[in-house]
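Aim 2 progress. For D-lactate dehydrogenase (cytochrome), the working sequence is reproduced below.
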Amino acid sequence: MALKDAKAGTRNEAGIAAVLGILKQSFGERFQTGQSFREQHAHTTTYIPPQLPDGVLFAESAEDVKAAVNACATHKVPVIGFGVGTSLEGQVNAANGGISIDFSRMNRVLEVNPEDLDCTVEPGVTREALNIHLRDTGLFFPIDPGANASIGGMASTRASGTNAVRYGTMKDNVLAVTAVTANGEEIRTARRARKSSAGYDLTRLFVGAEGTLGILTSVTLRLQAIPQKIAGGACAFPSIKAACDAVIMTIQMGIPVARIELLDTVQMRACNAYSKLSYAESPTLFLEFHGTDETVPLQSAAFAEIAAECGGGEFLWTANAEERTKLWKARHDAYWAARALAPGLAALSTDVCVPISRLADCVSETQADIEEHGLLGPIVGHAGDGNFHVLLLFDDKSTEGVAVAEAFVQRLNRRALAMDGTCTGEHGVGQGKMAFLEQELGGAVDLMRQVKQALDPDDIFNPGKIFHHG
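Predicted structure tokens for this construct:
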């Protein structure tokens, strides 16, 4: 992308002033316009600068959301949903000003249906809070991005996590949403039936739309049974190619691995230092298996044979909950571990995804790019589905540092697209990858614009994200 793609658009000053007055009168202290509140609701982990909303509404119900959307629609003022604020590509920035709707108070689990393995939650519920709520049911929600993100935000960015290879991404685990549309109406996209051929798949339309088509007010999720037995472990390899070969063989042999994560040498060094571990500092796979007392040892043994065939070290697995937690906490802390390598530098987390047959090529070429340009960028990836992240550390205080980071991201995305991959596997497009979306999908983006025009003709929902309207 170019920074110009993220520049502020045209502000509707008269409309904004009118909406500020309406919401202040309607919501009192639940509507804030102070500088600190505005700053808390506009940020990004890229080189894109924060773009502040003009006010923040702490919504407590769908009726609050409808009232805010109606006011914004009447005066053609932007409205942006805000969950926890962990999105990575500028999704919560207010490019044209407007109103941020904070969902931290819409954090209720509305319904759990254990027999049907589903639940319905408000958008502000976080993934960790949901799993705590579900603990006594024997069920869990599997999608686990590194951050403790809100369910609404995860649905909006079509997020995934370390166990997508087994349980899929948000698009596979959202059964229905309710959303407030531009005319202020609240619609439900589907019932709870596990399959339906009734009309357009509106659920999939809203999941991944990044809040550009409407504001989510509830999400119905598919749940999973907590496995009888869980085992995990790590295995070091002599090269990225050897590790990726092991991943491909594991997937092709149909071993039902629940997690298979790739960490390069630099990331392993960072994790060892940050999490006080003592793993080999070479390309490494972190794995987890879910099943029964009988199947998990068989799965682990099958992978150990594959690892040995690919030149890997000994695969030592454990079912001990404390050891597994330590392993996966280190993986989820990879971002912070990488930052600790150079505390004075900014960190940019960017992702691409390629067919797994091209993962070794893409990661290896990216490593060579990093070394050639003298950069520091640990790599960690969801190897089972070809998705990986570069945690690029750069000087965001200098024009040259920002230019170097931007150029690297451009090369990374061109590389992934050349391998028939995508510019983002799970972070979303936001402001950061609009140019790459055009390169990836070409004329299909024009069809997206037509959908946006039909559902949001005045471009009030999160403008300046995914693509430029009109």
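The domain at 109-225 is CATH 3.30.465.10 (Uridine Diphospho-n-acetylenolpyruvylglucosamine Reductase; domain 3). This observation will guide construct design in the next reporting period.
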